[in-house]
Every structure is written in C-alpha cells, then in structure tokens.
Amino acid sequence: MATLADTNAAAEKAQETPPTHWTEGNPEPEDLAHIPGDAGWPVVGNTFKMLADPHAFTSNMVETHGRVYKNRAFGGWNVALVGAEANELVMFNKEKIFSSEQGWGPVLDQLFPRGLMLLDFDHHRIDRRALSIAFKPGPMRHYSGALNNGMSAEVASWAGKMEFYPAIKKLTLDLAADSFIGIEWGPEADKINEAFVDMVQASVAPVRSPLPFTKMKRGVNGRAFLVDYFTKETHRRRAEGGGQDMFSQFATATREDGSLLPVDEVVDHMNFLMMAAHDTITSSATSLVYLLAKNPEWQAKLRDEITAVTGGPDGSGEPRPLDYDDMGKLELTEMAFKESLRIMPPVPSMPRRALKSFEYDGYRIPAGTPVGINIYWTHHSTDYWDDPYTFDPMRFTPDQVKARHKYAWVPFGGGAHMCLGLHFAYMQVKVLIAQILQRYEIVVEEGYDPDWQAWPIPQPKDGLKVEFKPL
Predict the structure, then answer these.
(1) What are the distances in angstroms from CA 464 to CA 29, 170, 313, 452, 454?
(2) pTM exceeding the 0.85 threshold for the entire prediction
(3) What is the pLDDT of residues 120-171, one digit of tens each?
(4) Helix (H, G, I), strand (E, B), or coil: what is residue 464?
C-alpha cells in the first residue's frame, strides 16, 4: 500500500485552487496513481458493472482494495471512502472540504438543478432556513390530517392480493398533491407521475447527453414539463396569499432579509422535494411492508402498539386516525421503520467533490476529486451491526443507538444536509402502517424473495406481491 510519504509528488501536482464547477479542475489519472482501484473496461470503465449490481461491486472493491479506492465509471474517476468514519468526515464536513453541489452535479444538474441537496454552505443554509417553515408544527399538523384522510380512503380498498409498489406509488403521489400542493390532480396526473419517473431514471443513465430516444432526453423533457407546471402554480399561490400546503409555504417563504425566494428557485426546490418525498417514501414504505410480511411477529407487536395509542377501530369497525400529538408514542413502529431504512436505504450512496486536498486513512486526495460514500455498505457491515441482514428493530433502542457510531446509520444523510423532511417521512409512514395494521394482516408466499432494482432508488422489480388479509 502506498504511504502518505509516497504521494508527495502527486500531491504537489494536484490542483489546490477550489474548483467552481464540477466540470473544472478534475485531477489527472497520475494524481490518483497512489490510490488502489480499478479502471474497468476500456471507454465505459465500471459503469455497467456498477449498474448491474452496485452492492456486490462495492463489497468486491472493499475486499480487494480496502476502504479507500478509486473507480472509473460514468466517464471519470471517483474515490470511494467507505465506512462510518468516512460518512462522518464527508457529511459533517467540518472543514468545508466537500461540495454537495459539485458532487451531485454530474448526476442531477440537468434534472434537479438548485434543489436543496445541490446547494452548498451559505446558499444552502439560507434557503434551508427559508424552506423550513413548511415543516413547522402548524403545517405539519395540517399534513397529518390530510395524510390520515387520504390513506384511510385508499387503504380500505386494498383487501386481497396486489402489487404493493405501484399502489403505494400512486397513493404517495396523490398524498403529495394534497399535502404538498393542496389540490387534487386533474388530467395531468399521469403526465406528472411519468415526468418524475423519467427524471429519476435519467439520473443514472449511462448516456449523459439528452440525445433522441435516450433516458436522459425523457428526463430532460420531464423536467421541462414540471418547470412549466410549478412556475404557473408559484405565481398563482403568491397572488392568492398562500395556504397551509407545502407548496404555498415555499412560494411565500422569505430569506433572512425579508425577500421572497426567486420564482425559479421555488420551482427547483419544489421539483426536487416532490421527487425526494415521492420516490424515497415509496421505496421506504415498500421495504417496510415487505419486512413486516416476512416477520409476522413484528406485525403483531406494531399492531398492539398502534391499537394502544389510537384505541383501535371505532364502533363501525373503521381504524381511528393517528393524531398528530400521538406520533411520538409509536416507538416500536419508529424502530421498525428505522430498521427497514437500515436494510434498504432509499439513497444507497452519496457523491461529493473535494474543493481542496485532504488526507484520509493514509492517503492524500487532491482537490477536484469526485468522492463518494456508501450508505448501503455501512448499513450492512459487521463492524457496526451483528447479523446485519436480519430484521431486528431492537437495534434502535436508546442504549443500542448510544453505543453505536453516530454515522453508522445515515439513511437521511447527516450534518448540514440532513434531510429537511425526515419528520414528515416518519409521520407519513406511521400513518400508513397504522391504517394497514388496524385493517389487515400482511402476507407473502412462503419463500418469496423479490429481486430489487438497487439504483437510483430501490424498488422490487416485480412490484412486491403481497396479500392484505382483513382482520
């Protein structure tokens, strides 16, 4: 293994002026020569290997090269920093070494530019503070009512066998229309859903230019449609004076100097957060339902907890809603959700870019280097978890959490870029599980083990075949 002393020549050549855009200042291959890794196949590198099975690829690279390795994929070199310690270095970002904007730029710049996740430092802090108004107790209480009403009506129709993923995807989109935008979708519903799907799929398309008939072209077209839709809606909300829904809160949010956010930035934030809430919640709810079906003893525990909190079905047999003030009482339900997020994190890996050179684990990484951390690998490492592929919500008791590395569980990110909507995610999943478990037993066929699409956001390739048996 190369030592720090061996890398001085390469370090001296490395660019130290902070790059201002992800297309500028990339290190040359010789600047990374001291870091072990794999260039992959000619031209395409390891792109297709990663897309085929990213988790197996990462495990093999760590086993072969260690927890710091270089990899050539998607047209360039990337240095992976793997493990909880690396997560802390990158996410906490104490020295402001890592750029989220330049890390996500190659993946999302054509699709979700200026989304909150793609902003850095003061710009990120100012916009995050302005947008946080949408997650204050008043609006959250409003969302709670909308979620209870919307989920109750839809979940009541789920008795019998079904594919869960498309059903929950439709429901989360409908709920986003209500809680986020405050309207019912009209004839544009299918087009809006298609646009979101196309944009997410385009984020990991091997062809990065919007050429005709490519995923990237469909993604760029989807973005154009949504920009037009949300721009018109932003102007309308401002003219009408706002409302309790999330979009109205964003449209009328002000920065520290009292100025409104520019319309195009409101649109970009809404576009990104709708995608994040829609697709990540869909993935997370699907993995939790699957794991509860595979572990019926935990279904029973959660059902008992929910019944104790809500009082059980009312006189007509309908589940009682989960009151906003009772959300915190569902401790086992929250632990089960956290465990499902550990097993199947909705964002399996996270890119950044080094704005200046830094040292880690005996290596000097030059400025301009794209770097990445791997959440999925950390969530399944025996360094932090006993029997990591077993569903065990008791990992998240206060004592267990306190004893574990703070950055061993990071499905919502960490540091300044901790997910702004994480409490909304907890609330939405708790309301969903309360509605399901007060009505049904979730069942899958014995031995059922669906194949999951790992990137860009996990989903079962067969839609997740489950049966909801009425109690």
Answers:
(1) 43, 14, 27, 9, 14
(2) yes
(3) 999 999 999 988 988 999 889 988 998 999 999 999 999 999 999 999 988 9
(4) coil
Residue 457, Cβ neighbours under 10 Å: how many?
A: 22
Q: What is the pLDDT of residue 14?
A: 45
Report pLDDT digits (tens) over 24-71. Answer: 888 899 999 999 999 999 999 999 999 899 999 999 999 999 999 999
The candidate with the shortest Cα–Cα distance to 401, out of 316, 464, 331, 465, is 331
* Residues whose CB falls within 8 Å of the CB of residue 324, separated by 6 or more in sequence, listed in order: 140, 141, 144, 145, 427
What 3-state DSSP class applies to 120?
A: coil
Alpha carbon of residue 357 to chain centroid: 28
Half-sphere exposure of 465 (CA within 13 A, CB side): 9
Angle at 30 between CA 28 and CA 34, to 5 degrees: 125
CA distance 179 to 394: 32
Name the residue type at position 455. W
Report the distance separating Cα 235 and Cα 126, nearest Å: 22
Three-class SS state of 449: coil
Query: At 367, which amino acid appears?
Result: A
Distance CA 324, CA 292 (A): 24
| C-alpha span between 342 and 239 (Å, rounded) | 43
Q: Which long-range contacts (CB under 8 A, 24 or more apart) does 354-358 make?
A: 354/97, 354/98, 354/99, 355/18, 355/19, 355/96, 355/97, 355/98, 355/99, 355/102, 356/16, 356/18, 356/97, 357/11, 357/14, 357/16, 358/95, 358/97
Distance CA(17)–CA(172), nearest Å, equals: 44
pLDDT at 388 over 70: yes
The conformational region for residue 208 under phi > 0 = left, psi -120 to 50 = alpha, else beta, is alpha
Q: Token pair of 182, please?
A: 């405050």
Reduce the secondary structure of 97-108 to three states and give it as a string: CEEHHHHHHHHH
pLDDT of residue 15: 47
Sole residue written with tokens 């990337």: 78
